[in-house]
Amino acid sequence: MSSRRSLPLLPDGVLRAQRGLRRVAVGLDFSLQSEFALARALRLPLAHGAAFSVLHVSPRLDGHSGPDGTVDGEQCLRRSVTSAAKRLRQRPDVDVREELRTGDAPHEAAELAKDQGVEVLVVGWPHLPQPAKPLPNDAMVMRLVREVDASVLVVMPHPGRVYHRPLVAVNFSRESRRALELTMRLCPVSTPIEVLHVVDLREEEEALRREDVPLTRQLGLRQEREDAARRALGRFLAPYRETGRALEIRLRFGDPCECILAEARDRDSDLLTLGMSSANPPTTLTEGVLRHSLCDVLISRHAAPPAALPDGGGAPAS
Asked: In terms of residue numbers, what domain contains 140?
């Protein structure tokens, strides 16, 4: 686990949300999907003096076939780094780094994130023989999310522009707050951010039905929970709205994973963000959303705060 300090919460978090990223890494396996990841990483806002690392992990020879036989991974990586440097030629303050490693990719990515204090690792969505099927449990992306102690951005389609329809799922925890702040850092200040909270009343409503409680009481419970959720969302977002940031409230009732995915589809979101603590492994919610999402997914992950600090209330964000 990385020993770097976690990002601060308010008020410093709001100020950080207006700045770019200082440590970004992008993982390449030279597939089309990883090229999409590099293109997206180059569109992320970078702070002054930022480090931009391009990482490839493989055996000595990658085994690509061509007129001249196999191609050394170092040559492929060098071309990608040169291309990235050209794209960033207007940013001489950005340090573009070439990282060629051998071994297990998630392990090496985790070591890189720890050594360099990477804030966001950008990777491409893997090519699947049957695209309609969800990611398998042992997919490389799933392992990266589990093992890398940094936020992971999984890129789906080719990025046509900066993010302009982001959706952040929150449950009022500290992890949710960090996820929202990181999304604010990735998106232009003028971009409205939709903030979704899912109220899961399935067990309570089922218990009421078993007890033959009148429908009016069931509807009353839902209205009470909706009103309470809207008030909580208002309090949660108030400090950010004071900065002038446009934030739109969304509420849904039901299974959290299904509701998050449905909201992203209905809103045609291009970025879906979930929060996660380094103290805990990904949950079925986090992995379920990642497996079935149709847009880019950002798993916001930061080191767990000291036990003496309040956790912001609520269950873990993922």
From this structure: 12-302
